[in-house]
From TrEMBL:
Membrane topology according to the record: Multi-pass membrane protein
Subunit organization: Homooligomer.
Principal subcellular localization: mitochondrion
Keywords of the record: Coiled coil, Membrane, Mitochondrion, Mitochondrion inner membrane, Transit peptide, Transmembrane, Transmembrane helix
Protein name: Sensitive to high expression protein 9, mitochondrial
Start-end of Polar residues biased regions: 223-237
Family under the similarity heading: Belongs to the SHE9 family.
GO annotations of cellular component type: mitochondrial inner membrane
Spans through the membrane: 166-186
Source species taxonomy: Eukaryota, Fungi, Dikarya, Ascomycota, Pezizomycotina
Length: 254
């Protein structure tokens, strides 16, 4: 007798083999389905890839919007810095008659920083313009991909409807062919077979009736001969029961 562990190993091996067969079958089924979709033009993988690209482009648009927002904040900060420096310069000029050495040094520092502030503003503006150009490019690319997705989905839907129409027409043709074959081939054969069966049954019934008729005729002949012989031997011995028996036999004949 095999041990439980041996039976368990056999079951495990069978289950593992069956799982391997099912995995291979599923992989082949997916491959054949992909080939069929490619052949019929109903493959949706290209549109799925395009949709993933659109999602990536949408994420890029969000990033570019953040860059534009950051660039605008940089421009605003540069303007605020320039305005603050100019305000401080104006304040120093208003009390120019009471400057100290520190005020003079501060004024010279603000004058020197004016050029730096202008450069910072220009740099921030350039960064903002670059961020806006990048945003515009990404948006244009996104709009182009969205239009392409809409166009491809329309073509895919038209292909699905066209294939469905052809499948429906094929099924209708198959049904018509089956109906015509039933009318032209199956029904005549079934009718001929039914006629043969009916003829065979009638022939068998006729043979049975003929056999019964022959048997009844033999019985009548025998009865008549017996009656005749009895009449010869005893002319007056024919009685009513014998005649009744003959009539009964004749009535039983078909």
């Amino acid at each position: 007798e095999p041990l439980p562990s041996e039976r368990e190993e056999q079951r495990w091996g069978t289950s593992k083999h069956f799982s391997q067969i099912m995995d291979d079958l599923q992989a082949k089924l997916v491959l054949y389905t992909q080939r069929m979709n490619t052949y019929t033009g109903t493959d949706y993988s290209g549109i799925e890839a395009l949709r993933r690209d659109i999602k990536a482009s949408e994420a890029m648009v969000k990033d570019r919007l953040n860059d534009v927002r950051t660039a605008k904040e940089s421009v605003d900060k540069a303007h605020i810095q320039q305005a603050s420096s100019q305000k401080e310069v104006v304040g120093l000029l208003e009390r120019k008659h009471s400057w100290s050495a520190g005020d003079l040094e501060r004024y010279m520092s603000l004058i020197r920083s004016e050029h730096v502030n202008e450069q910072a503003i220009q740099t921030a503006k350039d960064g903002l313009a670059g961020a806006e150009r990048g945003l515009e490019e990404v948006r244009t690319r996104l709009e182009k991909k969205e239009r392409q997705q809409y166009h491809e989905e329309q073509i895919w839907s038209d292909t699905i409807r066209r294939n469905s129409t052809w499948v429906t027409i094929g099924l209708m043709g198959l049904n018509i062919a089956l109906l015509l074959s039933n009318v032209a081939i199956i029904e005549p054969r079934r009718r001929r077979r039914l006629v043969r069966e009916i003829k065979a049954a009638l022939a068998e019934q006729t043979e049975i009736q003929l056999s019964n008729t022959a048997t009844g005729a033999e019985e009548v002949s025998a009865t008549v001969e017996t009656t005749a012989s009895d009449s010869v031997e005893t002319p007056n011995a024919v009685s009513a029961p014998d005649i009744a028996g003959i009539e009964q036999v004749l009535d039983e004949l078909p």
